[in-house]
Every structure is written in structure tokens, then in C-alpha cells.
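User: Quick sanity check before I run a bigger batch. Here is a single chain. Can you write out its predicted 3D structure?
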Amino acid sequence: MENIIFVFWYWWILAIIFLVIEMLVSGFFFLWMSASALATGILVWLIPSFTIEVQFFVFSLLSIIAIASWKIFAKKNMIASDKPLLNKRGAQYVGRVFELYEAVENGRGKIKVDDSIWKVCGEDCGIGTKVKVVAVDGTVFRVAPVGGKGPQAGAGL
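Assistant: Done. Predicted structure follows.
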């Protein structure tokens, strides 16, 4: 079997392919593989006597080092968001007080928040009772009464 000749510009083409893939998907994973392929191509251009095994070893080693370095750098330099609850709608309501829209019976009820109705769980209370959202469990609020029962408290029992 003949030796496979893997010339430097093959690595550069692979680098471009990885770069295109990085543009289509996000995450910086393929960017570092692209840089590794480019560096491997440069090394093969400078030292053409590298065997295919050495070339793949260099590419693999550079890829692992680059990706691991990026993960460590990104973890240490993570930017703190000024709105950490932006995409966590339910968590935005923890600590707020609402009136019950539907009485809590057998631990289940509903509150109206702006234009939405949310299921709640907590101790039994009547309609109009003010409750405080203490936690979110999926799409269900855990609530605790804060006193000041409304005019319809106890209705529906």
C-alpha cells in the first residue's frame, strides 16, 4: 500500500470547512478546531517530511489544547448578566404578592399575573387571599399566605 500524501493545503481546506461549520452553529468549538487545522497546515508547509500520523497527532493535540484553554478562559471570565432572570419568567415572580384568582383547595389553586393565569400550590386559602410566591416548581408557583384576606375569602368551600 502506498503512503498517503497529505499536503499542507488539505489542512487549510479543512480549516475553512471548520470555520464554515462554526458560522452555522455556535459555541466556539469548531473555531478552535479550525485554528488547529490552520496551524497544522502551516507546520506541514514548513516541515513537509511529517508523516500522516504525526500530522493527525499534531492536529489532535492542538485541538484538545485550544478547546480546553478556551473552556478554562471562558469559565474564569464569564460576564455576569445585569438581567439574570430574563429568560426565567416564573423566577421573576418569586417574592411578589398576588391575590388568589381561584381558591387553593387540596393544595392547588390559581393566581392571575398580568394577563396570565398561573397554577399555585400551598396551604388552602380562599379567593382574594393575598399570597406571596416563595418558589417556582416548573410552571407551578409555591405560595404562602401573607394575610389580609379579600372580601371573597372562603368562597367556594
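Confidence is low (pLDDT under 50) at residues 150-157.

User: Great, the batch can go ahead then.
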